[in-house]
Task: inverse folding
């Protein structure tokens, strides 16, 4: 799903706003003031924020009425309706760190079996949890509080039952906010808090259309319910998607965590929900400010940007930095803009950035062609064709005359001729429009069935959708085969067989084509994403006020639904973080991130390296350190720690000097490559580079670690010292990594990255860190 917003860079704002001074149209701006100074009451903080507005407004009444949010807990700043001239004047005040204009298209949502695949659930083969297993050691995440910024929650789902759960944790300070079809009785010992944030949305769009969404924490979309149940849904037996697919026991990764819901994403007026929602930066900042004060331990945020944004202009990065100061773990989606490189969202080093990969389950619905050829496909549509052959046609052959040739095969709304489509199976290609929307167009035109063919970019990745007619999805190679059959046959025919669920499919995992890629354009010295987790065809709870496709014309109601996106992989890491927090409550957020990164796996279930959706080798710009392994992360051996001050020094080193106004950057800050991160990226290497790292022993009190290195092709890597001796738990050891371009011509292209690894091992633990290097 998509939630979006745009902001002017601060330096452009300063240049452009004076030119726009004659324009008096009011818009929402966020005025960021950094940290709170001294002890002040909430009233005093709000009065201070009013004073800034008094300085640019003509009347006291205008100043007070213009204030939308006053950020009072950890974040110091406010959101207000301002003219460009007023915003320009505020940006010139010394204490003002930045002034950013809000926009509705910058941020958007990034939209059972996955936990069994990760080794965290009792399977169907008599497997019994042992005392040392992660779920028991963590007590299923009991009393850890996970906050979710999303589209709300459907509290009646069995996944949110509080049966057998004890009283609220004493650390909880939040509320259960009433609104449309939602009151305090909808919270319980599982959903312990729920709030909604809509002031920014309504300042832009006007009052919410209550037929589109609930003005409350209740979810009318489905996305928020899905992510919340993925994190912490209770075990619910005998559930499945529409049509009986993926039948089994649904469970979140941490079934006994407490959930705190922060609804920040809303339906876009005059746009179908299948196209996504929008999340306003001022609403998200308010939610994160409250979540920090409420006492959450983990934040799971399946929201990202369409384009990468500088840290000081990215409200998620700013809010997450304040959360890290309180030792809150923050996990975020990498985004769904793949397979293009340098597209990822949420690249801040204090955030766990999560890519998406597959699980070992397929929903097979093959196509039989008139010549007897059988083509593999996947779907979760419950509709079936009569068992006979039907006329088969390519969409471009039956479009209306006014449809442009370059999109004629994509089944876009209103493109197909009903006269030509009636009674036929129609092959549509991916590209523009939504997958389910293409099926809707085929049905509108009278088609009997629908085949969704991947583009070259989508490769072999198949997203299973609950289409509103008999349908199946095929990979790019098979789409070409069917096109060739259609074009070489006088009367092409086909039949789509009913779908069946197949478990233990191989190979798995593989990287989803849609998952956004590195390198980070905001800070190339930080290797992102950090890790990958299941995000393709994930079953979880759903809003009963939405349909499985979210199309207006789809009136089906489901309790559980299958969805794909880095929105689905992010809550897997949120849940794993909660389990680690339960076992190691004193660990820093950096230690938890390090444990997940250095324990991740690189091998699929056929014993070979993880590939992309087309079967080609994947790399760390797709999967980070690899596929998450929560059980191994609970005992990582060594961790790479970093403090709030370390992140501020990192920001100083890349020229961002004012996110915390109480912190003064040193004259010569450390190199950004020396941030103590559990991975290593060296862009544009010119000769030799040496970086410093330190590890903290969290394993055996007396241990010896040796280093293993797999250097990136074309480079040498030396780690010194090569042996680390630890005498006690908590002891730190420092080492250097020197990377040198090999002088012999290796054919490495300028700015092209190659990848390697270095690993500390003691015979029990393998503490692996990826390396990415390019030459200048």
Result:
């Amino acid at each position: 799903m998509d939630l979006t917003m745009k902001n002017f860079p601060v330096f452009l704002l300063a240049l452009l706003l004076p030119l726009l001074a004659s324009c008096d149209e009011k818009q929402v701006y966020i005025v960021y003031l950094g940290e709170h100074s001294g002890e002040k009451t909430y009233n005093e903080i709000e009065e201070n924020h009013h004073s800034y507005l008094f300085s640019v407004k003509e009347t006291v009444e205008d100043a007070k009425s213009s204030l939308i949010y006053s950020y009072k807990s950890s974040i110091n700043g406010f959101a207000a309706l301002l003219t460009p001239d007023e915003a320009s004047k505020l940006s010139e005040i010394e204490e003002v760190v930045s002034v950013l204009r809000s926009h509705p298209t910058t941020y958007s949502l990034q939209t059972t079996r996955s936990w069994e695949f990760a080794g965290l659930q009792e399977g169907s083969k008599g497997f019994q949890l042992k005392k040392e297993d992660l779920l028991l050691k963590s007590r299923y995440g009991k009393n850890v509080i996970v906050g979710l910024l999303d589209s709300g929650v459907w509290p009646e789902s069995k996944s949110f039952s509080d049966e057998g759960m004890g009283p609220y944790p004493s650390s909880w300070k939040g509320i259960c906010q009433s609104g449309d079809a939602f009151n305090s009785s909808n919270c319980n010992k599982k959903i312990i808090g729920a709030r909604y944030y809509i002031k920014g949305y309504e300042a832009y769009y006007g009052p919410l259309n209550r037929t589109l969404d609930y003005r409350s924490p209740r979810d009318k979309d489905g996305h928020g319910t899905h992510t919340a149940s993925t994190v912490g849904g209770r075990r619910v037996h005998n559930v499945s998607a529409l049509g009986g697919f993926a039948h089994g026991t649904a469970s979140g990764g941490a079934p006994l965590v407490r959930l705190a819901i922060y609804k920040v994403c809303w339906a876009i007026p005059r746009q179908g929900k299948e196209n996504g929602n929008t999340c306003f930066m001022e609403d998200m900042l308010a939610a994160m400010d409250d979540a920090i004060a409420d006492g959450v331990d983990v934040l799971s945020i399946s929201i990202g940007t369409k384009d990468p944004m500088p840290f000081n202009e990215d409200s998620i990065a700013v809010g997450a930095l304040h959360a890290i100061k309180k030792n809150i773990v923050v996990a975020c989606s990498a985004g769904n803009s793949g397979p293009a490189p340098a597209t990822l969202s949420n690249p801040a080093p204090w955030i766990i950035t999560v890519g998406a990969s597959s699980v070992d389950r397929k929903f097979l619905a093959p196509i039989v062609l008139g010549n007897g050829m059988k083509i593999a496909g996947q779907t979760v549509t419950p509709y079936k064709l009569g068992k006979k052959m039907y006329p088969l046609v390519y969409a471009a052959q039956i479009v209306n005359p006014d449809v442009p040739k370059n999109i004629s095969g994509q089944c876009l709304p209103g493109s197909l001729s009903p006269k030509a489509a009636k009674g036929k199976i129609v092959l549509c290609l991916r590209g523009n429009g939504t997958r389910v929307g293409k099926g809707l167009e085929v049905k509108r035109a009278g088609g009997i069935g629908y085949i969704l063919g991947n583009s070259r970019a989508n490769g072999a990745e198949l997203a299973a959708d609950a289409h509103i007619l008999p349908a199946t999805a095929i990979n790019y190679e098979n789409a070409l085969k069917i096109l060739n059959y259609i074009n070489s046959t006088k009367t092409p025919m086909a039949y789509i067989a009913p779908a069946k669920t197949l478990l233990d499919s191989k190979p798995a995992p593989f990287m989803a084509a849609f998952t956004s890629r590195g390198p980070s354009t905001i800070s190339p010295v930080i290797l992102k994403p950090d890790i990958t987790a299941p995000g393709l065809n994930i079953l979880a709870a759903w809003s009963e006020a939405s349909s499985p496709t979210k199309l207006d014309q789809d009136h089906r109601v489901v309790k559980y639904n299958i969805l794909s996106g880095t929105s689905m992989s992010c809550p897997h890491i949120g849940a794993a973080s909660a389990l680690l927090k339960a076992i190691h409550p004193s660990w820093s957020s950096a230690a938890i991130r390090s444990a997940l990164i250095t324990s991740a796996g690189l091998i699929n279930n056929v014993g070979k390296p993880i590939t992309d959706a087309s079967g080609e080798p994947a790399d760390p710009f797709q999967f980070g350190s690899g596929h998450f392994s929560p059980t191994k992360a609970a005992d990582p051996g060594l961790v790479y720690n970093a403090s709030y001050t370390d992140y501020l020094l990192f920001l100083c080193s890349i020229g961002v000097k004012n996110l915390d106004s109480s912190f003064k950057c040193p004259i010569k800050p450390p190199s950004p490559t020396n941030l103590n991160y559990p991975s290593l990226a060296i862009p544009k290497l010119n000769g030799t580079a040496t970086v410093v790292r330190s590890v903290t022993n969290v394993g055996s009190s007396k241990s010896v670690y040796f280093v293993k290195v797999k250097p990136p092709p074309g480079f040498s890597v030396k780690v010194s010292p090569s042996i680390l001796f630890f005498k006690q738990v908590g002891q730190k050891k420092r080492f250097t990594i020197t990377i040198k371009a090999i002088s012999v011509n290796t054919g490495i292209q300028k700015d092209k990255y190659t990848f390697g690894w270095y690993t500390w091992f003691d015979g029990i633990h393998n503490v692996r860190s990826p390396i990415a290097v390019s030459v200048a």
In short: The first strand starts at residue 27 and ends at 34.
